[in-house]
Specification:
alpha+beta; 23% strand; 3 strands; single chain; three-stranded antiparallel sheet; 118 residues
């Protein structure tokens, strides 16, 4: 049983949001450790964005749970050159499907999401 186009979109969005949240958390740590004179506005903005991302992730997880869809990360794999492919196993009602996402696709999606949330 293959995922519908809408289910694929939900899965991809959840994966991209997870990367977005991780990116924002790392950026926040860099700002906290930096020698910037005024950090608070940046940290507060990142905190608000992280909360918004979390809320959207929660809603997506609920939708996926209702459809009995689970996402399992199998980890990144090196490809020729310096890029990586992130491999996910998607299960729905006992059926499995694999989703491969290239690192540059994830990066562009995360960049778009960060711009949307800011």
């Amino acid at each position: 049983m293959r995922l519908t186009e809408e289910e694929n979109r939900l899965v991809r969005n959840l994966i991209f949001l997870e990367f977005t949240r991780k990116t924002m958390e790392v950026d926040k740590k860099h700002i906290e450790a930096s020698k910037m004179k005024i950090k608070d506005p940046y940290i507060e903005t990142l905190d608000k964005v992280i909360v918004k991302v979390g809320i959207e992730m929660r809603d997506l997880k609920r939708s996926l749970h209702k459809e009995q869809i689970k996402i399992h990360e199998e980890g990144p794999r090196e490809t020729e050159g310096s890029s990586k492919i992130y491999v996910y196993k998607i299960t729905k009602k006992g059926y499995e499907q694999r989703m491969d996402l290239a690192s540059h696709v994830i990066k562009n999606a995360v960049l778009g999401l960060i711009r949307r949330f800011l």
